[in-house]
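Key result, reporting period 2: structure in, sequence out.
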């Protein structure tokens, strides 16, 4: 053989070419990272999730939920917050009166219901502005500054709302709901009445006041309907709908007397 052939025959390959021992199989290197242990995953979730405690009852024998369960329960309770806020403000009275005004004028789709609801919500914010300022001053601001706890914040925030509802609630309605609740110990003062009883009496009083304002709104428009119907009957126009003829006169009267300003002013002053 030539010198080149002898050099290739004597050349050793680079790397470890030793055969694996008997009974052991070779394993290719893994390209994926090892899966974290379940305990590590739980620790990471606990660190990322917000810390929240929910306590129902007193410290001695109450129910306390914390961690993920407390977050889920608190999120479920927050879904009821819009309903509670609407039932504790003047939204009910304003919305009912605006719907009565729409029916009295005889306009079926003007203004639309979405606009009526938005206007009622806007007027509710205007009416509740002083009460919400008190809630922010006595409850939210000290809580955000870390001077009070969550439970005390809720207790302080409920006081201005409670005072607003009691100012708008008739004493007769409040007494009726207190009797229907049948408390073990009858309340001696208004401050001892449960908040649920105050809310129920407040909503009842709001509906009564809204129907009174609605009746006052219906009167001028009913007069126009009666006059138009009498004129049409005297002229022998029995087939002509009186509502179609009376609608332009209703709109004209409402615009001439600046009806929107009068209605909104009356609604706002009814809460004073």
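The corresponding designed sequence is given below.
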């Amino acid at each position: 053989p030539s010198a080149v052939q002898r050099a290739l025959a004597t050349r050793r390959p680079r790397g470890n070419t030793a055969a694996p021992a008997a009974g052991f199989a070779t394993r290719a290197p893994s390209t994926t990272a090892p899966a974290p242990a379940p305990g590590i995953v739980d620790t990471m979730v606990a660190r990322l999730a917000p810390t929240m405690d929910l306590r129902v009852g007193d410290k001695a024998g109450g129910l306390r939920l914390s961690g993920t369960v407390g977050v889920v329960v608190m999120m479920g309770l927050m879904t009821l917050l819009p309903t509670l806020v609407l039932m504790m403000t003047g939204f009910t009275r304003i919305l009912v009166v605006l719907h009565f005004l729409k029916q009295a004028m005889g306009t079926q789709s003007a203004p639309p219901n979405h606009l009526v609801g938005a206007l009622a919500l806007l007027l509710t914010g205007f009416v509740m502005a002083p009460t919400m300022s008190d809630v922010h001053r006595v409850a939210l601001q000290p809580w955000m500054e870390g001077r009070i706890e969550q439970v005390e914040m809720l207790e302080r925030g409920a006081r201005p709302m409670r005072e607003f509802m009691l100012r708008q609630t008739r004493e007769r309605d409040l007494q009726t709901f207190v009797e229907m609740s049948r408390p073990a110990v009858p309340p001696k003062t208004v401050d001892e009445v449960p908040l649920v009883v105050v809310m129920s009496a407040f909503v009842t009083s709001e509906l009564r006041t809204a129907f009174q304002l609605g009746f006052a709104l219906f009167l001028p428009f009913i007069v126009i309907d009666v006059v138009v119907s009498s004129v049409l009957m005297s002229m022998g126009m029995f087939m002509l709908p009186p509502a179609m003829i009376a609608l332009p006169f209703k709109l004209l009267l409402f615009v001439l007397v600046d009806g929107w300003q009068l209605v909104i002013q009356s609604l706002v002053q009814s809460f004073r």
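The radius of gyration is 37 Å. Residues 15-31 have pLDDT under 50 and may be disordered. This case is discussed further under Risks and Mitigation.
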